[in-house]
Write a structure and sequence with these properties.
By secondary structure, the chain is α/β, with parallel strands linked by helices. 39% of the residues lie in helices and 15% in strands. Helix 4 (108-124) runs parallel beside helix 5 and helix 5 runs parallel beside helix 7.
């Protein structure tokens, strides 16, 4: 099956941005990513559903279901469910959410169990409206999905719920995970890669900095990013500066396929 290659686009110009970049897949936020807000009906919903584009929704950055702070954890579960419902209404293939983190010195086992409870509680209500893809993250000394040893502990707890995985190349590199052989390492943990966020990194290896760059402007060899996409065999979204840069990055990946 042919994979879709596309871009993270502005939510108020999904179709125009997709056309300008030549994307056949799009990813966008349904609300301000820094807000605690349930999504309403997207103004382009009908046109997006009819467009033939492969659609992904990125959950708000505020969501952190791993935290021990119940004033964040409980609303995060609710917000994730609400955005999954919004993603389903727009015909999205999945929703992507960051792995979250704990406070300094807190037991990671608590974060793992909080993730398990997120899916267990959702399952009692019929499950999430679309598949949830957990994304690896770049920074944080007590993050749930930065280092792959921690990711393994997380997957032991949530894998049974059919959760998917989104591999971000910038996050992996900046988080201290080598890209060489990364697809096999991830599959050895999760058994799957459902989406690749193909991003170069402005910063150096293991910097912990989540700063994306276009393929020709970062610290990762562009060929290494293309190798990851080819090996994963999944849909690909570039979250690089655009739209001109995104268009060039998409063209590069298609030429390298």
């Amino acid at each position: 099956m042919a994979v879709a290659i596309g871009a993270h686009v502005k939510s108020d110009d999904v179709l125009g941005w997709a056309k300008e970049t030549g994307a056949d897949a799009v990813q966008f936020f349904l609300t301000d990513p820094q807000a605690w807000k349930a999504p309403g009906e997207h103004p382009e919903a009908d046109a997006i559903r009819a467009s033939g584009l492969t659609v992904y929704v990125h959950a708000p950055y505020r969501i952190n279901v791993a935290t021990t702070n119940n004033r964040i954890r409980v609303p995060s579960r609710k917000l994730l469910a609400q955005h999954a419902e919004g993603a389903a209404r727009i015909g999205a293939k999945a929703i992507i959410v960051h792995g979250g983190h704990l406070g300094e010195g807190e037991d990671p086992a608590i974060g793992v169990d909080n993730w398990r409870k997120t899916f267990a509680y959702a399952e009692k209500d019929g499950g999430f409206a679309v598949p949830v893809l957990i994304e690896n993250t770049a920074g944080g000394t007590n993050a749930m999905a930065r280092r792959f040893d921690r990711l393994g502990r997380l997957w032991d707890a949530v894998g049974e719920y059919g959760v998917g995985f989104c591999l971000d190349t910038c996050h992996a590199f900046a988080g201290g995970e080598e890209l060489d052989g990364i697809v096999d390492r991830v599959r050895g943990i999760t058994g799957r890669i459902d989406l690749v966020h193909a991003n170069n990194s402005r910063d150096t290896f293991d910097s912990g900095a989540d700063r994306h760059a276009n393929f020709d402007a970062g610290t990762i060899d562009a060929a290494a990013i293309a190798d990851v996409c080819r090996a994963a065999g999944s849909d690909v979204i570039v979250e690089t500066p655009g739209p001109d840069g995104q268009s060039a990055d998409i063209d590069y990946l298609r030429a390298s396929a």
